[in-house]
TrEMBL record:
It comes from the Bacteria. Signal peptide: none annotated. This is 3-methyladenine DNA glycosylase. GO terms for biological process: base-excision repair. The lineage of its organism: Bacteria, Pseudomonadati, Pseudomonadota, Betaproteobacteria, Burkholderiales. InterPro entries: Adenine_glyco (IPR005019), DNA-3mA_glycosylase (IPR052891), DNA_glycosylase (IPR011257). It holds the Pfam family Adenine_glyco.
């Protein structure tokens, strides 16, 4: 999830469109907000990538991850689970020397472990069905950034369930950010031109 701005309402940008404050100032964030953030992700590779990047984002700003996303994709074999699961000590050394990504050993090892867990989860229906089974029955309707939750009962439950399946770096806050990014909840502020754009939730 992109870093949260101060407790503010939606912002009218210079192109006349209304957006959540975090998407108003940076061109790359604006493009991401307008085209990707909050849209449903229902393919395994895509969801594994989002899961990995949200894990790397923990403790950092989302724009840092977004600027490095192409490098992450190159370094992690486009986040194909089978490829990442085969990474060995030489790959870890390679990744730790790659200035294009976040060189955090624990997060790198977690991504490799989570790739193996993703493959194992196929025996139970797969990562996509597993994660989407925690979609809540309703979504927040925030008027300001301060009204956007950082966790939910569902993100706490999902975090626990994923840990039980062998995943790591999947805390409740990270899982809520994943839910926001992949359309499981809609936390576009009321008035934003993107609210309701996912087709999962109504506009209001």
């Amino acid at each position: 999830m992109p870093a949260r701005a101060e407790a503010a309402g939606p912002v009218t940008c210079d192109d006349g469109l209304v957006r959540t404050p975090w998407a108003a100032s940076d061109a790359l964030l604006r493009e991401y907000y307008d085209t990707e953030w909050g849209m449903p992700v229902r393919d395994e590779r895509g969801l594994f990538e989002r899961l990995a990047l949200e894990s790397f984002q923990s403790g950092l700003s989302w724009i840092t991850i977004l600027r490095k996303r192409d490098a992450f994709r190159a370094a992690f074999s486009n986040f194909v689970p089978e490829a990442v699961a085969e990474f060995d000590d030489d790959d870890v050394t390679r990744l730790l020397a790659d200035p294009g990504i976040i060189r955090n050993r624990a997060k790198i090892l977690a991504t490799i472990k989570n790739a193996s867990a993703t493959i194992a989860l196929r025996l139970e229906g797969g990562l996509v069905d597993f994660i989407w089974s925690y979609q809540p029955k309703k979504t927040p309707i925030p008027m300001t950034v301060a009204e956007v939750p950082t966790t939910s009962d569902e993100s706490i439950a999902l975090s626990k369930a994923l840990r039980e399946k062998g995943f790591t770096f999947v805390g409740p806050t990270t899982m809520y950010a994943l839910m926001e990014a992949t359309g499981m909840v809609d936390t576009h502020l009321v008035g934003s031109h993107r609210r309701g754009s996912s087709g999962v939730w109504p506009r209001d």
